[in-house]
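ERR on first pass: missing label on line 2. Operator R.T. fixed the label and resubmitted. Corrected input:
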Amino acid sequence: MSAPPGPAGTTPDAAGTPPEAVGTTPEATAPGPARETLHYAVRNPKLLIGFTVVLILLALGLFGPPLLDTTDPNAYGGPQAAPPDSTYWMGTTTFGQDVYAQFVHGLRATFLVGAVGGAIAAVVAMLVGFFAGYRGGVLDELLTMVTNVVLVIPALAVLLIINAYLGVRSVPVQGVFIGLTSWPWAARAIRAQTFTLRTREFVDLARLSGNGTWRIVFREIAPNMSSYLFMMFILLFGGSVLIASSLDFIGLGPTGGVSLGLMLQSAQQWSALQLGMWWWFVPPGAGITAIVGALYVANVGLDEVFNPKLRES
Amino acid sequence: MRRYFARKLLVYALTFVVAVTVNWMIPRFMPGDPVAAMVSRARVSQPEAAEAMRAYYNNLFGFDQPVWQQYLHFWGALFQGDFGISVWVFPTPVSDVLLDALPYTLGLMIPAVLLSWIVGNWAGALAARRKVLDNTVLPAGYLLTAMPYMWIAVILAWALGSKAGWFPISGGYSLDIQPSWTLDFVLDLAHHWVLPFLSLFLVALGGWAIGMRNMIIYELESDYSSYLSALGAPQRLIRRYAFRNAVLPQVTGLALQLGVLVAGALVTEIVFAYPGLGSLILAAIQNQDFFLLQGAFLFIVIGVLIANFVIDVVYVLVDPRTRTGMAGGQS
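pass 2 clean. output:
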């Protein structure tokens, strides 16, 4: 997907936002101001709320499944189509599957696909963005061209085809494919940031000292953008979660497993809507919305922490 | 400006070539044999009959020619609007199947994209101005952008369709009406259109509002704004400048978001069983109709390319820098 759904301006991208506006000042990583960053971090409500929500859901995903009676979230154990009660906290499906068991297992798949997809997209975006931005010239032209080509082709259409043909049906593989198609907007933004940094004195100094491209990129430029890169990873993580849920919903999700998107798909497929079984389709969507929304909100908090201009005094 | 358009056109041309090539490669180099799938679907028991069928399909889809010839033929056919023949609704040409579905998707997409952009920018700009508004628009915006398209579609269908009974929750029109240009049909069409449109509109709206709000705040804190206010310029004027500058990245954002919005339209259509490209793609996947899937993919890519081109033209109109060629790269 070309950009994470929504935050067209959540992180200013190459489009024309003042690159300086993002909190990527060299001070952000120095030891003294690091304490200052922490000082603001623990006092930023957006950051705290966002991360708390994500951590609670992560904990639920990690520790929820082992606490269940069964190991199989798809087991046909309970009463059929029962609304939530004290035994089945989120009710049961038409087939008597425990919605809560599916939900906590689904959270795992969601975090996994977000982490894998986000990490791969971030790595590709960094490689492309850094080298295009730092080296410039023909390499830049070439990489920018590739980025733009990938950017214009809708990722979901590509993923549909890959999935339909290869029949890839596992969460990690899904994450890999999502990562490989969702990097372009991030690469553009990193390239623009690198552009502004490569003419700074400390980079010139490193170059004069005879350091190679790799060393300058990863020792001088990347650390100065670390906060920006971290925020970008968060957005890519959220984007991966949303794309994965769409794929699952279309019926191209992992087979045999559980994910929040698959839960929505089976709710849709077995007419939970027409039957009024709201407990079947409300939790999975709410889970995705909570994770992604909390990440976005935390991201705004981080922006305020890193960028003194945005702090509310 | 000429350089700007030359570069844009080059990217579009390259994208198109890549898309067509990928499209051509898929049934040939990917695992899974579409011809075998079709033969097995026909459930022919005698091996001779199966062999004859295989030969027929191979010939029909041109698999018996050399690879480079197939590739050139593919391009040739494409320019004649020939996307091959659908397996699912054999023997209807893929282009006919797609063209039937296209108006529904466009009728859903175009209003949703444009209206959400306009309303979102307006709401975001308002939010940047007033604290009270900011505290409502911002959380609502984040909630909306974080929602998966199909979920908000399901929730809307449940609340406004099933519970309240205001709108029908599936189909593009009532089954007892034949599509025709009568008032009854148009009203029925509009009635079915509301919920899918609303779900697409709402999710996109949040993103634009947040984007605009952030951009305006950045602009209001920039040097020229402080300079203007130091000069004693009225706040209204400063805001107008800030708005103009903030709108530019939003135009670029529109181009960037198109691919995402296409994805949103596809899953929304599936929820509402809306007879557009999304429902077709689902049918193509379920029936292993590779040619229809291929055709839909190309249709989407071409649509996104055209839309991006239109946005580029608009960008030149609103950004004076592209006109003078200063921002030639715009990459």
